[in-house]
Design a protein that fits this description.
The structure is a single chain. This protein is of the alpha+beta class and 641 residues long. 17% of the residues lie in helices and 28% in strands. It is built from nine helices and 33 strands. The protein has a seven-stranded antiparallel β-sheet with strand order 1-10-9-12-6-3-4, with no helix packed on it. A six-stranded parallel β-sheet has the order 30-29-28-27-26-31. A four-stranded antiparallel β-sheet has the order 2-15-7-11, with no helix packed on it. α6 links the parallel β29 (469-473) and β30. It is globular, with a radius of gyration of 25 Å. The termini are far apart. The relative contact order is 0.11.
């Protein structure tokens, strides 16, 4: 009987694999990527120490931007796409032009939809929900030439953000697939490129199984919405690194540790070193090592080797949002230099208070979505800097990346300007509700375990080394349950303990369950703050959303902050939200105006103007409420004698 059962199980398993193989990637919840590199820190490589110290990311000789004007074909139903459209020989005559990055709905293709809680499409419900049959699709195409100087190196295609189901073809061959729209998808394309001209085609399904976890309160729009570029590295090169930069118990001295993962498939001797440089150009720490074990002894050689350095630095200058002091780290692998910025800060929770460098912090925070009134979800570097500088002028010291990781440059600015970042994974399934039963919340549906873990791991691996990243969030409004329990444990293993950064791991729907280190509820009243302040809590209290900024609002924030300032375990909160999500349009009389949900298409699902709840307008002009926020968030207070 046992042998019969095993045989039946084997047959069923083989059948499931066959069925899974027949399901297209975009409709298979078990497939989150194909051919994508494991997520890692984003870094640039330079040929000299001087250029590494002085250069910007894009100045690297191993960086080639693919932003610009691409060829484009759009269809309302993917089934009507021309056959062999991914092939270089396919005629260009019917292609239109599109700007990359920038959502296609903001460039005359398809319909922009705004909804808050529900999904923007009709779907079949059940334990495994079904996507609609009719799904729009867009196909991008451009040519590129790999620089001759890159011969013999590993060449990568980097797509920093594209929504939703993304197929990549290089010279007509499928090079990979990804469906996480807010994390970098990196593909090694050595096997597909040739010398001279190459053709790149990116085919995107507007909706995919990734859409089940992208039910956020923002415009539901599509396409390539962040940078696209090529990068190159030597076959022997830095694969990734992990920085520990904290303070000892005296809060005066720095503890620095770096784990460098070196890719060495060629089995050669490798020289690895680092130096840490202060703002005066003085090296405060350094180390070097040679990877050669196994060569003489004929031992088994590892294609990836971890090299670790650890030191203590006396009288370090610490990083905080108030004083964002940074050091320059230069890593060297053979003759290549990799720069990165380092900040020393100590995180700990003690007596229900979250301490940064030994001091309790009040998070004077705001939530932020990627929004530009012209391009859609693509936000330029200039606008990012304008946003952060405007925040600092109004006493904002913390940002929640609602509800997905931001691009690399955003974190670099926060490191430089000084912002505590509540870094959130690209996970929200609000439209499914929070019921723990089968067919309810996806957070407790094990069929969606892999898709949750993929996004949470992406967030962590990509953002782990930024000094500004202070709080790690598993996602937003996606229920709780098995998938979030396992995700918490995965990050906990890497974050907690003496040799780790000990950043708090948080999740709003966990409430006061064990898989959140702080209590981060949403939309508490002033009376609620006063009550929990008086009663106390077993962990820090920091509402992830409060003081909803729609219309003439935020007037009660001063009453909320009366309690926050009074009770040490009440440590601030994050206003919803930063910018009104209106799009700029022009009427027949030439007058410009901002649109909101329902202004596009016919009988589209819509939550109307609920996307306009920021404390600045779409053009970043502050609302009157900003003065109220500035007052409540003031760092100086006076009491009557």
């Amino acid at each position: 009987m046992r042998h019969l059962l095993l045989s039946v199980c084997a047959i069923l398993f083989a059948s499931s694999l066959t069925i899974s193989a027949q399901i297209p990637y975009w409709n298979n919840v078990q497939i989150t990527e194909v051919g994508r590199e494991y997520p890692r820190t984003e870094f640039a490589t330079f040929d000299s120490r001087t250029s590494a110290i002085e250069g910007q990311y894009e100045d690297s000789p191993y960086y080639l931007s693919l932003n610009g004007t691409w060829k484009f074909v759009y269809v309302d139903d993917y089934r009507t796409l021309p056959k062999d459209i991914e092939q270089p020989s396919f005629s260009n005559l019917k292609w239109k032009s599109i700007k990359v990055p920038g959502n296609w709905e903001r460039q005359g293709f398809g319909t922009a939809i705004y909804v808050n809680m529900p999904y923007e499409f009709k779907y079949g419900s059940g334990i495994l929900p079904q996507l609609p049959e009719i799904i729009p699709a867009g196909v991008y195409r451009r040519d590129f030439t790999v620089p001759q100087e890159w011969d013999g190196k590993n060449v990568y295609l980097n797509i920093d953000g594209a929504k939703s189901g993304v197929y990549v073809y290089v010279n007509g061959k499928e090079a990979g697939y990804a469906e996480n729209s807010k994390d970098r998808a990196q593909f090694k394309i050595n096997d597909y490129i040739t010398k001279g001209d190459n053709t790149l085609v990116i085919k995107i399904m507007r909706w995919s199984t990734g859409s089940w976890l992208e039910c956020q309160d923002f415009w539901r729009i599509s396409g390539i919405e962040r940078d696209v570029y090529l990068s190159a590295q030597d076959k022997i090169s830095l694969k990734d690194f992990r920085i520990l930069s904290t303070l000892d118990t005296s809060l005066k001295n720095g503890i620095f540790k770096i784990d460098m993962m070196v890719d060495n498939a060629d089995r050669e001797v490798v020289n690895v070193s680092y130096e840490l440089i202060d703002n005066n150009g003085i090296t405060v720490a350094s180390g070097s090592r040679k990877i050669d074990e196994g060569i003489a002894a004929g031992q088994e050689w590892k294609t990836e080797t971890q090299v670790s350095f650890r030191t203590k630095i006396m009288n370090i200058k610490s990083w905080s949002a108030e004083d964002p002091h940074l050091y320059t780290l230069i890593m060297k692998v053979n003759d290549k230099y990799i720069p990165y910025r380092v900040g020393f800060r100590r995180f700990e929770i003690s007596d229900s208070m979250f301490l940064v460098n030994g001091q309790p912090v009040k998070f004077k925070g705001v939530n932020i979505h990627e929004h530009d009134m012209i391009t859609g979800h693509y936000v330029s570097k200039e606008t990012m800097r304008k946003d952060l500088e405007l925040m600092r002028k109004h006493n904002i010291n913390a940002i929640r990346t609602s509800h997905y990781p931001q691009p690399r440059y955003f974190y670099e600015l926060c490191d430089e300007i000084g912002m505590y970042v509540y870094c959130e994974a690209n996970v929200e399934s609000h439209g499914m509700g929070y019921n723990l039963r089968e067919g309810g919340t996806l957070g407790n549906n094990r069929m969606f375990y892999g898709i949750h873990m993929d996004r949470i791991i992406n967030m962590y691996e990509r953002c782990k080394n930024f000094p500004c990243v202070t709080i790690l969030s598993l996602g937003n409004e996606a229920g709780n349950g098995y998938n979030f329990y396992k995700a918490y444990e995965w990050i906990e293993e890497r974050e907690k303990g003496e040799n780790n950064m000990n950043r708090p791991i948080c999740y709003e729907r966990a409430g006061l369950e064990w898989n959140t280190d702080m209590y981060v509820p949403q939309y508490p009243t002033a009376e609620w703050f006063a009550e929990i302040g008086e009663k106390g809590c077993d962990r820090p209290v920091v509402p992830s959303e409060y003081s909803h900024g729609m219309g003439n609002s935020n007037g009660g924030i001063v009453r909320q902050w009366k309690s926050i300032n009074l009770y040490p375990h009440l440590q601030g909160g994050f206003i919803w939200d930063w910018v009104n999500q209106g799009f700029l349009e022009t009427d027949p009389n030439g007058r410009q105006y901002w649109t909101y949900g329902g202004d596009y298409g016919v009988d589209m699902p819509s939550d109307a103007n609920f996307c306009c709840n920021g404390i600045v307008a779409p053009d970043r002009r502050p609302h009157p409420a900003m003065e109220e926020v500035k007052k409540a968030y003031s760092n100086v207070a006076f009491d009557r004698a």
